[in-house]
UniProtKB/TrEMBL annotation:
Protein name in UniProt: HDIG domain-containing protein
HDOD domain sequence ranges: 20-218
Species assigned in the record: Thioalkalivibrio halophilus
Source species, domain of life: Bacteria
Record-linked InterPro entries: HDIG_dom, HDOD, RNase_Y/CdgJ
C-alpha cells in the first residue's frame, strides 16, 4: 500500500476515531482558559466543575505517584496553584482521553484490563527512569506512557480481525515483520501513527503527541522531544518484561540501540525500574480503570 493511500486511510480512521471517542466540550473550554493568562482559578474550576466525573479523574491523577504532591490536591483551585497550568492542562486532557477509551466496546482480542495493565507499567517505568535522568520530564513521560497505545486499542476496537491478522503475521517466523510493520502491511499505518494522529487532532501537547506517535521509533521524534520519547520507548520494552515477570531481553520487543544513549539510561537502570514498578502498578492502573483495586462492596 502506498504512503499516499495509507495517509488517506489514516485520515479516515482518525475521523472515525474522533467520532467514536468524542472529547467532552468542557475539555476544550478548560484548555482555552488555562492558556489565557487573565483567566482566574475560580473560572477554571467553574468550567471544569460542569463535568464532576472529569474533576474526580483529574484529582486522582494529580494525587498519583507521578506527581507526589507534598500535600493532597483536593480541589481544582489547589491543583492550579500546586501543579501549575501546564501540568493541569495535561491532566485534564489525559483524564478525558482515558475516560473516553473506557467507553469503547469490550472485545476479546485486547481486553481493557490487559490494555491498562501494560499502559500502567509503561507509565510507571517511564516516570521512574525520568526521575533518574530528567526529573522535569517525569510528569510528561508518565502520561505519554499511560496513553502510548491509544492507537492499538482503537485498531482492535474498530478492525479487530485486521489487527489480529497483523499480530499473527508478526509471529509467523523468527524473521517475520515487527508488529508495527505487519500493521502497516495490513492497513497502511501502524497503531503508533494512528494514536499520534488522533492525539494531534485533539490538540494534545506536542510532547504527548510525539510520545504516542514515535514510541516504537524514537529516532523519528523531534530533537526537542527525542529524549523523553526514548524514555517511553525503553519503558514500553520494560513493561512487556514486567507483565510476564521476565528479565530476559529476548522476551521483550527489540529496542532501538541508540535509545539508551539518547535517554541517558543503562540496561541495569531499566531492569531496576521494572523491579520497582511491581509495587506501584496496581495503584496507577486504578487511575485509568476504576475497578482495579476497588474493594468489594
Amino acid at each position: 500500500m502506498s504512503d499516499e493511500t495509507g495517509f488517506a486511510s489514516l485520515e479516515a480512521r482518525v475521523e472515525a476515531a474522533d467520532r467514536l471517542l468524542a472529547m467532552p466540550q468542557v475539555v476544550f473550554e478548560v484548555s482555552r482558559l488555562l492558556d489565557d493568562d487573565e483567566s482566574t482559578q475560580p473560572q477554571i474550576a467553574a468550567a471544569l466543575g460542569r463535568d464532576p466525573g472529569l474533576v474526580a479523574h483529574v484529582l486522582r491523577l494529580a494525587n498519583s505517584p507521578a506527581y507526589a504532591p507534598a500535600r493532597g490536591v483536593d480541589s481544582i483551585e489547589r491543583a492550579v496553584a500546586m501543579l501549575g497550568r501546564d501540568v493541569l492542562q495535561r491532566l485534564v486532557v489525559a483524564s478525558a482521553v482515558t475516560r473516553s477509551m473506557n467507553t469503547l466496546p469490550e472485545q476479546e482480542r485486547l481486553p481493557l484490563e490487559t490494555f491498562w495493565r501494560h499502559s500502567a507499567y509503561c507509565a510507571v517505568i517511564a516516570r521512574q527512569l525520568a526521575q533518574e535522568v530528567a526529573p522535569r520530564a517525569a510528569g510528561v513521560v508518565f502520561l505519554a506512557g499511560l496513553l502510548h497505545d491509544l492507537g492499538k486499542l482503537l485498531l482492535f476496537s474498530q478492525s479487530p480481525e485486521a489487527a489480529h491478522r497483523a499480530f499473527l503475521a508478526s509471529l509467523d517466523t523468527a524473521q517475520g515483520p515487527s508488529p508495527q510493520a505487519a500493521e502497516r502491511e495490513q492497513m497502511g499505518f501502524d497503531h503508533a501513527r494512528l494514536g499520534g494522529a488522533l492525539a494531534e487532532r485533539w490538540g494534545l501537547p506536542e510532547a504527548l503527541v510525539e510520545g504516542i506517535a514515535w514510541h516504537h521509533d524514537p529516532l523519528s521524534a523531534s530533537d526537542r522531544h527525542r529524549p523523553s520519547v526514548a524514555l517511553v520507548h525503553l519503558a514500553n520494552t520494560g513493561a512487556h518484561l514486567a507483565e510476564i515477570d521476565s528479565r530476559d531481553w529476548a522476551d521483550a520487543p527489540p529496542l532501538e540501540e541508540q535509545a539508551w544513549a539518547i535517554a541517558g539510561v543503562s540496561p541495569e537502570m531499566l531492569l531496576q525500574a521494572v523491579e520497582d514498578a511491581q509495587h506501584e502498578v496496581l495503584a496507577v492502573q486504578a487511575l485509568s480503570d476504576p475497578e482495579v483495586g476497588t474493594p468489594a462492596g
